[in-house]
Amino acid sequence: MPEGWSDKRERQYEHIKESYKERGVSTDEAEERAARTVNKERSEEGEAKKDED
After folding, report:
1. What's the sign of the alpha-carbon dihedral 17, 20, 24, 25?
2. What is the pTM for the complete model shown?
3. pLDDT for res 1
């Protein structure tokens, strides 16, 4: 789990990951999808740090 996530986002990540695993997705793929989903929501909510490059 990436550093800087709030407790809420960590719980969300675990919930999404477990949901994917229950549907038969591999652990690695479930972790990747869950992280992408949480990061997308963080970005939409203005929680994600934006690069200034």
Report:
1. negative
2. 0.80
3. 58
Written as six digits, the tokens of 11 are 């719980």
pLDDT at 47: 85
Question: What amino acid occupies position 25?
Answer: V
DSSP 1-53: --TT--HHHHHHHHHHHHHHHHTT--HHHHHHHHHHHHHHHHHHTT-SPPP--
Task: Parse the chain into domains and list their residue ranges.
Answer: 7-39
Note the pLDDT tens digit of each residue in 7-33: 999 999 999 999 999 999 999 999 999
| Sequence-ordered list of residues with C-beta below 8 angstroms from that of 6, at least 6 positions apart, any chain | 47
In the structure encoding, which two tokens stand for residue 48, read together? Answer: 């994600």
- Whether 39 contacts 30, CB under 8 Å: no
